[in-house]
Amino acid sequence: MPYHKNKQQAFQAAQQGHKQALDANAQANLVQGQSSYGQELKHVKEEVNEAYAQIENALEVASDSQHKQLTQFQQDLKGLVDSVNNEQ
């Protein structure tokens, strides 16, 4: 049972990291063109890097259904990074 608990905790951490990265990006988009935009982009980068690490950890113990969702999280983050890079 502890294995299942760790699997679930790892997935939830990755899920939360994904959400925080998307939220940080949404906040950066709100202040685009303002003086705080650079700081917000830095925050987005930090959140994305942390989310990637959490996803990688979760993938090591993920069930098949979790694996599919985690892979989608990675694709979402890649799209977010590509979008930010194209704006600069």
From TrEMBL:
Low complexity bias locations: 8-19
Annotated stretches, region: Disordered: 1-21
Superkingdom in the source lineage: Bacteria
Protein name per its UniProtKB record: Small, acid-soluble spore protein N
Organism of derivation: Priestia koreensis
Lineage summary: Bacteria, Bacillati, Bacillota, Bacilli, Bacillales
